[in-house]
Fold each of these.
Amino acid sequence: MAQPALVKIGRVGRPHGLNGEVALDGVSLSATELNAVRHFTWRGPDRRERPLELASARPAQPRVLVRFAGIGSRERAQELVRGELWAERASLPDPGPQVAYTFELVGLRVHTEDGREVGTVTDVMATGAHPIYSVRGADGRERLLPAPPEFVRAVDLAAGTIVMALPPGLEDL
């Protein structure tokens, strides 16, 4: 599977406070990881792009609050709303052995332990307990599958698959 040079990090939400901070929603990195990356590309809804340098990032569950260099007011921060934040894949810190970033899971095919294909991951939602995979089946139906470690048996990024042990009846909901 080809690796894109830029990967989506999150979506810029509303301004927070008066000093240029914005909420970063759907973020796949922690505040510490964002601080390590520092340089990003902002893409607006009209596909316009702009480079941004991170000045600060702090957790504010379930999102992260960020401020960028040169963006010091609520009005300037408002210009970034509804845009997406992207980063060079090579600039991301190594997630560690047998760990994958959330964005790497989107597009993987989900199979049960007996080899039956459930569908393709379209989104990964963070919750307080464990991630939830949004999986679209061949029938077009969207299923929300809880993904605690005891359900996820294997993730093979190279093969593009996730093997899960799903409780009986979960797929019928």
Amino acid sequence: MVSVFLFSLVANEMVFENETIFDSRAFSLLASYTTPFNTKTAILITWFGTGYFLLPAYLLITLYHSQQNKNKEAILVLIFAFVSMMSGMALKVLFHRTRPMFPLISGAGGYSFPSGHSLGGFTFSGVLIYLLLKTTLNPYLKWIFSILLIIFSLLIGLSRIYLRVHFASDVLGSLLLTIVWLSITFILFETIEKRSHPQ
């Protein structure tokens, strides 16, 4: 509920009301770190938020869980992949926000809010963390890998701002949207699982 409220606040103040202080400060901060090496690194990192990486990764995860007879997890992964993509596309059209000026790379088309790459990265990391926590792996390793996945997704979002193809509020909106969607789906999934396997 907090994430729903914050997403609505970001959408209203920064998209509809066009409040630019937050976004301008983020661009100004990252501009001081602009170098050819950092730009190449950002381009590499941002690739992990594209369909070229996410679609094969989701398919491999789905196939793995299917082979392990974990059909519920396989279905969950497919649902996340589909809804993440469709919700991002639908909201871009709904909010109709133009992209930032003077991007560091070419080829970024469509609308800006929310960030599709960030949404994909956040969702993918959230799914992996959920699946990871359900394994029998050492709890300390679960925490370490979970933290690394969170950092990984945040770097994707940061790369979009650094490359000036998205506003910081686009990335923040994607993060809040992912929290809302993951929370609802995980709660429903766990509820269904408990009812199908009562203690």
